[in-house]
Design a protein that fits this description.
The complex is a heterodimer.
Chain A: H1 2-37, H2 39-45, E1 58-59, E2 64-65, H3 68-99, H4 102-117, H5 120-145, H6 151-156, H7 168-192, H8 196-204, H9 209-220, H10 222-238, H11 241-247, H12 264-271, H13 278-312, H14 315-318
Antiparallel strand pairs in A: 1-2
Chain B: H1 2-26, H2 31-34, E1 45-51, H3 56-69, E2 73-78, H4 82-90, E3 96-99, H5 105-111, E4 114-129, E5 141-143, H6 144-151, H7 161-164, E6 180-184, H8 189-201, H9 216-219, E7 223-226, H10 228-238, E8 242-247, H11 248-253, E9 260-262, E10 268-269, H12 273-280, E11 292-294, E12 304-313, H13 320-335, H14 337-345, E13 349-350, H15 353-363, E14 367-368, E15 371-372
Parallel strand pairs in B: 1-2, 1-3, 5-9, 6-7, 6-8
Antiparallel strand pairs in B: 3-12, 4-8, 4-12, 4-13, 9-10, 11-12, 14-15
Classes of the chains: A mainly alpha, B alpha/beta.
């Protein structure tokens, strides 16, 4: 009897272990494929592919491939999205986990989950017809009117914004809305998983609710919350459809948030199909590799952060 | 020794017999059955094609009409894009391909016996959004140099003298506003035609021509890319004082306003099937039967047009029934009145007679196992 069970255990662990290895294999195969297929492009184009240059040119008709505008576009829109989405999402999740009256919690949770389920092309359409003209254009006009900003911010807010709102800012804001449900849902679950003993102990020491949340609950759940932020960032980096629809797909030179731009993901989606020359295809595979590596680095960095946080949190707080 | 020789020669004969047997069973029988009119069971020959999405609406219409012309053939066409179509012919994974782009020299060499056949032409038109104009105002007029200057961001305002002098009737209505310039962001035959035209219009256009190019107006911060004809159209319609280029058929079917152009002869023309046909009328081709038809002479010629092609293998096809059916299909596309009507109904310009003749001649050169396919 016990022997039979052991056999089952072995089989079972092999099965699930195999599935786990499959995931690893898929990542490795994708990375290996991107690396080998872009060999020609890496050899022919060299480092100018990545160099940050305002006049970087991507011209398949002349076989010139410098990808900085797209790398910049991906990074700037994701950064805007994370900066705006993190405080909002944390606010929502703290409200849902700690402050929300019980009968409101369910409808709110539904809303958040529904927001996460909306297909990105719908966000794009809604962006073009509602969000851009109603919100982004006035906001862009306001930002452009701010004068006397220090040079860096001044460059970021060089206007005017396009009359229909198409811009890097628009992409960043649409991404913000798209990643809020991801970050919120996970952070909420993290906060809900914190044992009540923590809250009771904090309150027992005379802490207010605010102090409990800020000084006990958030630090306690920090590693989980960081994980949520990284998932949100991952979605922002890779999002294609909605960004393509609101960002203007333009190899623009100034880098201003109010001007149209391009991301790596949208360029790949738009140009891959009709890539005519071999170098064009290879250069796009190299761009795919770049996106892959950036995502990988961010993930590793996040792991490192989580590990740092977990190490610093005293054990007695955790148990 | 002689025994050994004999056994070797026996092996050799056996092997060659075996090979011959395989040859006849796997490929269908050569010539004899290839040119007979024996009725094949319906749907017994399958032709697969892929490529240009520009010719896709016509292909689908032709395929459905061709079912009644020759029930023995089943054709499928997958709009994967001209690049993918060309690649499939070079790699020999397909029976035919549609392409708006011509084959490069390397592709020609790699594909060995590839031939392009122009089947019809399309035009690119300039659509615009000027709320300042009313519906009773005449259409905007542009010329090649102005178009180049707009996409080069040299002309940036609607009331630039370059534009107003072409449009004396509406000159005082053209606003002192910046032109938002829209282009295709995805790789496209429409862009190829348009950039071919810009290159031909003026040496000021230095970005080159192709299905995807870099736009100087982008660098200036005033260029926008739309995904597909519908993406460009949506952007133009949402943005006052904008302008962009779309495929003629798309503009007609969606009733978009489009500009007239001043052509090489200095005449102002509307984009119509006739003005595109006028551009094709010279019938001058390279030996590969390719030609650009931008900025063509002739009083009626629309200056921004281009052929779309079908690509076939001309001598390496081994299945002669298939080869014959394929050539018959292409022949039907370019010559049959039903097929031509299908194309014009979809706002493509059919080939003028002199071009049609050249295509038919070239089709006659297709061989299968050394035998001409067409009777």
């Amino acid at each position: 009897m016990s022997r039979a069970t052991r056999h089952g255990d072995v089989l079972w662990s092999l099965l699930v272990g195999g599935m786990a290895i499959l995931v690893l294999l898929v990542v490795l195969v994708i990375g290996w494929m991107l690396w080998t297929q872009s060999a020609d492009a890496r050899a022919k184009i060299g480092v100018s592919f990545f160099l940050p240059m305002a006049d970087a040119s991507w011209n398949p008709a002349k076989d010139v491939y410098q990808a900085w505008p797209f790398i910049y576009g991906t990074l700037i829109t994701s950064v805007v999205a994370i900066i705006l989405a993190v405080p909002i999402s944390l606010g929502i999740s703290v409200f849902l986990a700690e402050l929300c009256p019980e009968r409101l919690r369910l409808p709110f949770n539904w809303m958040i989950e529904m927001l996460a389920a909306i297909p990105s092309v719908v966000y794009g359409l809604w962006g073009i017809f509602v969000f851009l003209p109603q919100v982004v254009v006035p906001l862009g006009d306001f930002l452009a009117s701010l004068s006397g900003l220090p040079s860096f911010a001044g460059t970021l807010f060089t206007g005017p914004i396009s009359l229909d709102g198409t811009s890097r800012l628009a992409a960043g804001l649409v991404l913000t809305i798209m990643i809020i449900p991801t970050i919120t849902a996970i952070s909420r679950d993290v906060l809900l998983a914190i044992p009540d003993s923590q809250r009771e102990a904090s309150m027992g020491l005379g802490a207010t609710r605010w102090e409990t949340i800020w000084q006990v609950l958030l630090p306690y759940g920090l590693s989980g919350i960081l994980g949520a932020i990284i998932l949100g960032l991952g979605r922002a980096l890779g999002e294609t459809m909605a960004v393509t629809m609101v960002m203007g797909n333009s190899n623009e030179g100034t880098g201003s948030l109010l001007k149209p731009g391009y991301t790596m993901a949208s360029l790949l989606a738009l140009q891959f199909k009709e890539a005519v020359s071999q170098l064009h295809t290879d250069a796009m595979i190299e761009l795919g590799l770049t996106l892959f590596v950036i995502t990988l680095i961010l993930n590793l960095f996040a792991r490192f952060l989580v590990w740092q946080v977990a190490r610093r949190t005293p054990q007695e707080v955790r148990t | 020794m002689s025994k050994l020789l004999r056994s070797i020669s026996f092996l050799f004969v056996a092997a060659s017999l075996l090979l011959a047997a395989c040859g006849t069973t796997s490929g269908s029988a050569p010539a004899a059955s290839g040119n007979s009119d024996t009725t094949l069971p319906s749907g017994s020959v399958t032709l697969t094609g892929q490529g240009s999405s520009f010719q896709n609406p016509a292909q689908q219409q032709w395929i459905s009409d061709y079912e009644s012309v020759d029930p023995s053939v089943t054709i499928s066409y997958n709009p994967t894009g001209s690049g993918a179509g060309k690649k499939s012919m070079v790699d020999n994974t397909n029976d035919f391909a549609g392409s708006d782009a011509v084959l490069t020299d390397q592709e020609m060499a790699a594909g060995q016996d590839l031939q392009l056949y122009p089947i019809m032409a399309g035009a690119t038109v300039i659509t615009y959004n000027l709320p300042e104009l009313s519906s009773s105002d005449p259409a905007l007029i542009l010329d090649g140099q102005t178009l180049v200057d707009i996409y080069n961001a040299k002309v940036t305002m609607w009331n630039d003298p370059e534009i107003t002098k072409l449009n004396p009737d509406i000159a005082d209505k053209l606003p002192a506003n910046q032109i938002s310039v829209v282009h295709r962001a995805d790789g496209s035959g429409t862009t190829e035609i348009f950039t071919n035209a810009l290159t031909s219009f003026s040496s000021d256009w230095t970005s080159g021509a192709g299905s995807t190019v870099e736009w100087p107006v982008d660098k200036a911060g005033n260029g926008f890319g739309g995904n597909g004809n519908q993406g460009v159209t949506a952007k133009v319609q949402n943005t006052p004082d904008s302008l962009g280029y779309v495929e003629y058929a798309y503009a007609v079917q969606n009733k978009l306003p489009f500009a007239k152009m001043v052509n090489k002869d200095g005449k102002t023309v509307d984009p119509t099937i006739d003005s595109v046909k006028a551009a094709m009328s010279s019938g001058k081709f390279t030996p590969q039967l390719t030609a650009t038809i931008v900025n063509e002479p002739g009083a009626d010629s629309w200056p921004i047009a281009g052929y779309t092609y079908i690509i076939l293998h001309t001598s390496s096809m081994t299945d002669c029934v298939k080869a014959q059916k394929l050539v018959e299909y292409v022949h039907w596309i370019v010559t049959d009145p039903t097929a031509i009507k299908d194309a014009t109904d979809l706002d493509y310009a059919p080939l003028p007679d002199n071009v049609q003749q050249q295509v038919v001649e070239k089709l006659g050169e297709v061989t299968c196992n050394g035998q001409p396919v067409m009777k």
